């Protein structure tokens, strides 16, 4: 028996595209609960389930969040905006109710644990949403102004907004395609890491990347240039260079 190389789940994953324009149709309670329920089935470090999600439907609140992040029409337009939180508050309260002080919350391992749990759960949620005919886009800009987000959502100590997700019924007029990724040989290493694998892979990808954006009406778009702007000067962090202070404010000293 040969190993299966394709499945409906894999096919769904390969159809993924970011959606930033939505039809004026709601995401129902049953859909939302099914999506978050699927997220709960994601793997979790030590089963600590160190995450929560805030579903924001109120138009005024979405507008305020959008403005705090620099202005994103897809947050304002989406029928629901999900804010995914690293959440150690629940576990901290549980421990303290048992007379145990959660000493590990001050270490960076626990910060990473919460962020990793969020990433795994949120990706599960988006895949579930897409299987229901919905679409969405992750919003890393939720970290542009952590203090404003925490105040708007009433976040307690030991919670931190890791990523947002605008979710709704895709507007077919948007026309966004499936963005190419790096060739597999650039990311799949066998036995040991190949420090030279990036060279041919990025050259090949640059050609595919430019070709894709030409179909989207953006000729001469360069992945290398985009990556350089994002990871080169500190301005590419869009204000997130103060993240450690923001984490401390929310009870994540990350020592």
From TrEMBL:
Family of the protein in this entry: Belongs to the flavin oxidoreductase frp family.
GO molecular function: oxidoreductase activity
Domain Nitroreductase, residue spans: 16-165
The keyword Flavoprotein appears for this protein: yes
Source organism (scientific name): Leucobacter massiliensis
Stretches that traverse the bilayer: none
Positions of the UniProt region annotated as Disordered: 220-255
Keywords carried by this UniProt record: Flavoprotein, FMN, NADP, Oxidoreductase
InterPro entries in the cross-refs: Flavin_OxRdtase_Frp, Nitroreductase, Nitroreductase-like
Listed name of the protein: Nitroreductase domain-containing protein
Keyword NADP carried by entry: yes
């Amino acid at each position: 028996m040969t190993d299966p190389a394709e499945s409906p789940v894999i096919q769904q994953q390969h159809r993924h595209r970011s959606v930033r324009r939505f039809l004026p149709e709601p995401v129902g309670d049953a859909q939302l609960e099914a999506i978050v329920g699927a997220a709960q089935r994601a793997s979790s470090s030590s089963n600590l389930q160190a995450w929560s999600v805030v579903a924001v439907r109120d138009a005024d609140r979405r507008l305020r969040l959008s403005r705090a992040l620099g202005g994103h029409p897809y947050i304002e337009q989406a029928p629901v905006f999900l804010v995914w939180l690293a959440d150690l508050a629940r576990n901290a309260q549980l421990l303290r109710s048992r007379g145990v002080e959660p000493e590990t919350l001050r270490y960076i391992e626990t910060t990473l644990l919460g962020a990793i749990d969020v990433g795994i759960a949120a990706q599960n949620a988006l895949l579930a949403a897409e299987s229901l005919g919905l679409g969405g886009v992750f919003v890393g800009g939720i970290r542009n102004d952590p203090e404003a987000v925490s105040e708007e959502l009433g976040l307690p100590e030991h919670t931190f907004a890791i990523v947002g997700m605008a979710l709704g019924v895709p507007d077919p007029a948007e026309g966004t395609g499936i963005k190419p990724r790096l060739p597999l040989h650039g990311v799949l290493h066998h036995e040991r890491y190949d420090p030279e694998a990036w060279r041919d892979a990025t050259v090949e990808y640059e050609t595919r990347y430019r070709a894709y954006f030409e179909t989207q009406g953006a000729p001469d778009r360069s992945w290398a240039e985009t990556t350089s702007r994002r990871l080169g000067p500190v301005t590419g962090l869009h204000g997130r260079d103060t993240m450690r202070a923001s984490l401390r404010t929310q009870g994540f000293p990350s020592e």
